[in-house]
Protein backbone atom coordinates (compact mmCIF):
# COMPACT_ATOMS: atom_id res chain seq x y z
CA UNK A 1 0.00 0.00 0.00
CA UNK A 2 1.44 3.35 -1.06
CA UNK A 3 1.00 5.97 1.66
CA UNK A 4 4.00 8.28 1.42
CA UNK A 5 5.30 9.86 -1.78
CA UNK A 6 8.57 11.60 -2.62
CA UNK A 7 9.16 13.73 -5.71
CA UNK A 8 12.79 14.21 -6.75
CA UNK A 9 13.07 17.36 -8.84
CA UNK A 10 11.15 20.53 -8.02
CA UNK A 11 10.83 22.00 -11.50
CA UNK A 12 7.57 22.69 -13.28
CA UNK A 13 6.64 19.01 -13.51
CA UNK A 14 7.89 17.95 -10.10
CA UNK A 15 6.02 20.67 -8.25
CA UNK A 16 2.83 19.97 -10.19
CA UNK A 17 3.03 16.27 -9.37
CA UNK A 18 3.67 17.05 -5.70
CA UNK A 19 0.64 19.34 -5.60
CA UNK A 20 -1.54 16.62 -7.14
CA UNK A 21 -0.68 14.15 -4.39
CA UNK A 22 -1.00 16.74 -1.62
CA UNK A 23 -4.44 17.87 -2.80
CA UNK A 24 -5.34 14.18 -3.10
CA UNK A 25 -4.60 13.67 0.59
CA UNK A 26 -1.11 12.13 0.55
CA UNK A 27 1.96 13.37 2.46
CA UNK A 28 4.64 14.40 -0.01
CA UNK A 29 8.32 15.23 0.26
CA UNK A 30 9.89 17.33 -2.49
CA UNK A 31 13.63 17.03 -2.99
CA UNK A 32 16.06 19.06 -5.06
CA UNK A 33 19.75 19.89 -5.00
CA UNK A 34 19.38 23.55 -3.99
CA UNK A 35 17.26 25.29 -1.37
CA UNK A 36 16.55 28.09 -3.86
CA UNK A 37 14.93 25.58 -6.21
CA UNK A 38 12.73 24.33 -3.38
CA UNK A 39 11.77 27.87 -2.38
CA UNK A 40 10.70 28.59 -5.97
CA UNK A 41 8.65 25.38 -6.02
CA UNK A 42 6.92 26.22 -2.75
CA UNK A 43 6.04 29.69 -4.00
CA UNK A 44 4.64 28.28 -7.24
CA UNK A 45 2.56 25.65 -5.44
CA UNK A 46 1.18 28.31 -3.09
CA UNK A 47 0.13 30.39 -6.10
CA UNK A 48 -1.47 27.40 -7.82
CA UNK A 49 -3.38 26.45 -4.68
CA UNK A 50 -4.60 30.04 -4.37
CA UNK A 51 -5.88 29.89 -7.95
CA UNK A 52 -7.79 26.70 -7.14
CA UNK A 53 -9.41 28.45 -4.18
CA UNK A 54 -10.25 31.44 -6.35
CA UNK A 55 -11.85 29.15 -8.95
CA UNK A 56 -13.91 27.35 -6.33
CA UNK A 57 -12.09 24.02 -6.68
CA UNK A 58 -10.71 24.15 -3.14
CA UNK A 59 -11.86 25.66 0.13
CA UNK A 60 -9.43 27.66 2.24
CA UNK A 61 -9.12 24.82 4.75
CA UNK A 62 -8.42 22.33 1.94
CA UNK A 63 -5.70 24.61 0.62
CA UNK A 64 -4.19 24.84 4.09
CA UNK A 65 -4.31 21.07 4.53
CA UNK A 66 -2.74 20.43 1.11
CA UNK A 67 0.05 22.89 1.81
CA UNK A 68 0.67 21.24 5.17
CA UNK A 69 1.14 17.84 3.54
CA UNK A 70 4.17 19.00 1.53
CA UNK A 71 7.67 19.02 3.04
CA UNK A 72 10.71 20.35 1.20
CA UNK A 73 14.25 19.06 1.67
CA UNK A 74 17.59 19.19 -0.11
CA UNK A 75 18.68 16.03 1.76
CA UNK A 76 18.10 13.05 -0.54
CA UNK A 77 18.43 10.48 2.24
CA UNK A 78 15.81 12.27 4.33
CA UNK A 79 13.54 12.65 1.30
CA UNK A 80 13.37 8.97 0.40
CA UNK A 81 13.93 7.23 3.74
CA UNK A 82 10.27 6.40 4.40
CA UNK A 83 8.85 6.82 0.90
CA UNK A 84 6.63 4.11 -0.57
CA UNK A 85 6.72 5.74 -4.02
CA UNK A 86 9.63 7.79 -5.36
CA UNK A 87 8.93 9.75 -8.54
CA UNK A 88 11.97 11.02 -10.42
CA UNK A 89 11.27 14.30 -12.22
CA UNK A 90 14.78 15.58 -12.87
CA UNK A 91 16.08 16.96 -16.21
CA UNK A 92 16.06 14.67 -19.23
CA UNK A 93 19.75 13.77 -19.05
CA UNK A 94 20.23 10.02 -18.99
CA UNK A 95 23.49 10.07 -17.05
CA UNK A 96 21.90 12.22 -14.33
CA UNK A 97 19.04 9.77 -14.00
CA UNK A 98 21.38 6.77 -13.79
CA UNK A 99 23.44 8.48 -11.09
CA UNK A 100 20.29 9.22 -9.09
CA UNK A 101 19.07 5.64 -9.43
CA UNK A 102 22.39 4.41 -7.98
CA UNK A 103 21.75 6.61 -4.93
CA UNK A 104 18.20 5.32 -4.66
CA UNK A 105 19.46 1.74 -4.66
CA UNK A 106 21.54 2.62 -1.62
CA UNK A 107 19.08 4.71 0.38
CA UNK A 108 15.49 3.72 -0.44
CA UNK A 109 13.67 1.26 1.77
CA UNK A 110 13.16 -2.30 0.47
CA UNK A 111 10.12 -2.59 -1.76
CA UNK A 112 9.77 1.13 -2.40
CA UNK A 113 8.51 1.78 -5.92
CA UNK A 114 10.56 4.04 -8.19
CA UNK A 115 9.05 5.74 -11.23
CA UNK A 116 10.28 8.26 -13.77
CA UNK A 117 8.32 11.14 -15.23
CA UNK A 118 10.41 10.96 -18.40
CA UNK A 119 8.83 11.80 -21.73
CA UNK A 120 12.04 11.06 -23.62
CA UNK A 121 13.62 7.75 -22.65
CA UNK A 122 12.25 4.22 -23.03
CA UNK A 123 12.06 2.20 -19.84
CA UNK A 124 14.60 -0.30 -21.18
CA UNK A 125 17.19 2.48 -21.43
CA UNK A 126 16.40 3.92 -17.99
CA UNK A 127 16.88 0.56 -16.29
CA UNK A 128 20.10 -0.46 -18.02
CA UNK A 129 22.08 0.36 -14.88
CA UNK A 130 19.55 -0.24 -12.10
CA UNK A 131 19.10 -3.15 -9.72
CA UNK A 132 15.43 -2.59 -8.87
CA UNK A 133 13.79 -3.24 -12.24
CA UNK A 134 10.89 -5.16 -10.70
CA UNK A 135 9.92 -2.09 -8.70
CA UNK A 136 10.44 0.42 -11.53
CA UNK A 137 8.07 1.95 -14.05
CA UNK A 138 7.39 5.19 -15.90
CA UNK A 139 4.63 7.53 -14.76
CA UNK A 140 4.46 10.27 -17.37
CA UNK A 141 2.36 13.22 -16.18
CA UNK A 142 1.28 16.05 -18.48
CA UNK A 143 1.90 19.74 -17.91
CA UNK A 144 0.37 21.38 -15.94
CA UNK A 145 0.51 18.22 -13.86
CA UNK A 146 -1.73 19.55 -11.10
CA UNK A 147 -4.57 20.05 -13.60
CA UNK A 148 -4.22 17.59 -16.51
CA UNK A 149 -5.64 14.15 -15.58
CA UNK A 150 -3.62 11.91 -17.93
CA UNK A 151 -0.74 9.82 -16.62
CA UNK A 152 0.89 7.33 -18.99
CA UNK A 153 2.29 4.23 -17.29
CA UNK A 154 5.04 2.24 -18.99
CA UNK A 155 6.16 -1.10 -17.56
CA UNK A 156 8.57 -3.79 -18.68
CA UNK A 157 8.60 -7.57 -18.35
CA UNK A 158 10.38 -7.37 -14.99
CA UNK A 159 7.89 -4.92 -13.49
CA UNK A 160 5.74 -6.62 -10.87
CA UNK A 161 2.06 -6.55 -11.82
CA UNK A 162 1.05 -5.72 -8.25
CA UNK A 163 3.22 -2.59 -8.52
CA UNK A 164 1.37 -1.52 -11.67
CA UNK A 165 -1.99 -2.18 -10.02
CA UNK A 166 -1.02 -0.24 -6.88
CA UNK A 167 0.17 2.78 -8.86
CA UNK A 168 -2.91 2.77 -11.10
CA UNK A 169 -5.14 2.68 -8.04
CA UNK A 170 -3.16 5.44 -6.35
CA UNK A 171 -3.39 7.72 -9.37
CA UNK A 172 -7.13 7.18 -9.63
CA UNK A 173 -7.51 8.13 -5.96
CA UNK A 174 -5.92 11.52 -6.62
CA UNK A 175 -8.17 12.16 -9.61
CA UNK A 176 -5.86 11.13 -12.44
CA UNK A 177 -6.72 9.08 -15.53
CA UNK A 178 -3.92 6.52 -15.92
CA UNK A 179 -3.39 4.48 -19.08
CA UNK A 180 -1.01 1.51 -19.20
CA UNK A 181 0.97 0.91 -22.40
CA UNK A 182 1.03 -2.71 -23.55
CA UNK A 183 4.47 -2.36 -25.13
CA UNK A 184 7.38 0.07 -25.24
CA UNK A 185 7.19 2.72 -27.96
CA UNK A 186 9.07 5.97 -28.47
CA UNK A 187 7.02 8.96 -27.29
CA UNK A 188 4.40 6.77 -25.58
CA UNK A 189 0.80 7.47 -26.68
CA UNK A 190 -0.20 11.09 -26.21
CA UNK A 191 3.03 12.70 -27.38
CA UNK A 192 3.01 10.61 -30.56
CA UNK A 193 -0.52 11.75 -31.32
CA UNK A 194 0.25 15.33 -30.33
CA UNK A 195 3.44 15.44 -32.41
CA UNK A 196 1.61 14.18 -35.50
CA UNK A 197 -0.94 16.98 -35.14
CA UNK A 198 1.70 19.62 -34.34
CA UNK A 199 3.75 18.65 -37.39
CA UNK A 200 0.75 19.27 -39.65
CA UNK A 201 -0.19 22.49 -37.80
CA UNK A 202 3.25 24.01 -38.24
CA UNK A 203 3.35 22.81 -41.84
CA UNK A 204 0.13 24.71 -42.58
CA UNK A 205 1.51 27.86 -40.93
CA UNK A 206 4.76 27.49 -42.86
CA UNK A 207 2.90 27.09 -46.16
CA UNK A 208 0.88 30.22 -45.47
CA UNK A 209 -2.42 28.33 -45.42
CA UNK A 210 -3.44 30.09 -42.19
CA UNK A 211 -1.84 32.06 -39.38
CA UNK A 212 -1.09 30.54 -35.98
CA UNK A 213 -4.17 31.98 -34.29
CA UNK A 214 -6.53 30.56 -36.90
CA UNK A 215 -4.80 27.18 -36.70
CA UNK A 216 -5.43 27.16 -32.94
CA UNK A 217 -9.07 28.16 -33.44
CA UNK A 218 -9.55 25.41 -36.01
CA UNK A 219 -8.52 22.91 -33.34
CA UNK A 220 -10.09 24.35 -30.17
CA UNK A 221 -13.42 25.09 -31.89
CA UNK A 222 -13.39 21.94 -34.02
CA UNK A 223 -11.76 18.57 -33.27
CA UNK A 224 -10.44 19.74 -29.89
CA UNK A 225 -13.96 20.66 -28.81
CA UNK A 226 -14.94 17.02 -29.29
CA UNK A 227 -11.74 15.41 -28.03
CA UNK A 228 -12.24 16.46 -24.41
CA UNK A 229 -14.95 13.79 -24.17
CA UNK A 230 -14.88 11.70 -27.36
CA UNK A 231 -11.54 10.33 -28.56
CA UNK A 232 -10.47 9.74 -32.17
CA UNK A 233 -11.29 6.04 -32.30
CA UNK A 234 -14.79 6.61 -30.93
CA UNK A 235 -15.26 9.53 -33.34
CA UNK A 236 -14.34 7.21 -36.22
CA UNK A 237 -16.94 4.68 -35.10
CA UNK A 238 -19.58 7.38 -34.73
CA UNK A 239 -18.81 8.87 -38.13
CA UNK A 240 -18.57 5.53 -39.91
CA UNK A 241 -15.36 3.69 -40.74
CA UNK A 242 -16.28 3.70 -44.42
CA UNK A 243 -16.37 7.50 -44.28
CA UNK A 244 -13.03 7.64 -42.50
CA UNK A 245 -11.50 5.28 -45.05
CA UNK A 246 -12.35 7.82 -47.75
CA UNK A 247 -10.98 10.66 -45.59
CA UNK A 248 -7.66 8.86 -45.13
CA UNK A 249 -7.41 7.85 -48.78
CA UNK A 250 -8.09 11.42 -49.95
CA UNK A 251 -6.06 13.44 -47.43
CA UNK A 252 -3.22 11.21 -46.20
CA UNK A 253 -1.13 11.54 -49.40
CA UNK A 254 -0.97 15.33 -48.93
CA UNK A 255 -0.03 15.37 -45.23
CA UNK A 256 3.40 16.56 -44.11
CA UNK A 257 5.87 13.69 -43.88
CA UNK A 258 8.97 15.47 -42.55
CA UNK A 259 11.03 13.49 -40.05
CA UNK A 260 12.38 16.39 -37.99
CA UNK A 261 11.33 19.67 -36.44
CA UNK A 262 9.33 21.91 -38.81
CA UNK A 263 11.32 24.63 -40.56
CA UNK A 264 9.33 27.40 -38.88
CA UNK A 265 10.34 26.07 -35.46
CA UNK A 266 13.98 25.80 -36.53
CA UNK A 267 13.96 29.44 -37.65
CA UNK A 268 12.34 30.70 -34.45
CA UNK A 269 14.68 28.70 -32.21
CA UNK A 270 17.70 29.99 -34.12
CA UNK A 271 16.41 33.54 -33.53
CA UNK A 272 15.92 32.73 -29.81
CA UNK A 273 12.18 33.25 -30.13
CA UNK A 274 11.21 30.36 -27.88
CA UNK A 275 7.72 31.35 -26.75
CA UNK A 276 6.74 32.68 -23.34
CA UNK A 277 10.21 32.02 -21.90
CA UNK A 278 11.68 34.71 -24.17
CA UNK A 279 8.58 36.84 -24.70
CA UNK A 280 8.08 35.83 -28.33
CA UNK A 281 7.52 32.69 -30.35
CA UNK A 282 4.66 32.26 -32.78
CA UNK A 283 2.99 35.02 -30.75
CA UNK A 284 4.40 38.07 -28.95
CA UNK A 285 3.92 38.49 -25.20
CA UNK A 286 4.12 41.75 -23.29
CA UNK A 287 6.10 41.96 -20.06
CA UNK A 288 3.05 41.52 -17.84
CA UNK A 289 1.04 39.38 -20.25
CA UNK A 290 2.73 36.02 -19.75
CA UNK A 291 1.34 35.26 -16.30
CA UNK A 292 -2.09 36.39 -17.44
CA UNK A 293 -1.96 33.94 -20.35
CA UNK A 294 -0.86 31.10 -18.05
CA UNK A 295 -3.52 31.91 -15.45
CA UNK A 296 -6.21 32.04 -18.13
CA UNK A 297 -5.08 28.67 -19.49
CA UNK A 298 -5.17 27.14 -16.02
CA UNK A 299 -8.61 28.61 -15.33
CA UNK A 300 -9.92 27.01 -18.53
CA UNK A 301 -8.39 23.67 -17.50
CA UNK A 302 -9.98 23.88 -14.05
CA UNK A 303 -13.40 24.52 -15.57
CA UNK A 304 -12.99 21.70 -18.10
CA UNK A 305 -11.82 19.34 -15.37
CA UNK A 306 -14.88 20.18 -13.30
CA UNK A 307 -17.15 19.27 -16.24
CA UNK A 308 -15.25 16.06 -17.03
CA UNK A 309 -15.58 14.76 -13.48
CA UNK A 310 -19.33 14.32 -13.90
CA UNK A 311 -19.72 13.96 -17.67
CA UNK A 312 -17.28 11.33 -18.92
CA UNK A 313 -18.52 9.73 -22.15
TrEMBL record:
GO terms for cellular component: cytoplasm. InterPro entries: 3-OHacyl-CoA_DH (IPR022694), 3-OHacyl-CoA_DH_CS (IPR006180), 3-OHacyl-CoA_DH_NAD-bd (IPR006176), 3HC_DH_C (IPR006108), 6-PGluconate_DH-like_C_sf (IPR008927), 6PGD_dom2 (IPR013328), NAD(P)-bd_dom_sf (IPR036291). Residues 187-285 form the 3-hydroxyacyl-CoA dehydrogenase C-terminal domain. One of its GO terms (biological process) is fatty acid metabolic process. Its main location: cytoplasm. Homodimer. This is L-gulonate 3-dehydrogenase.
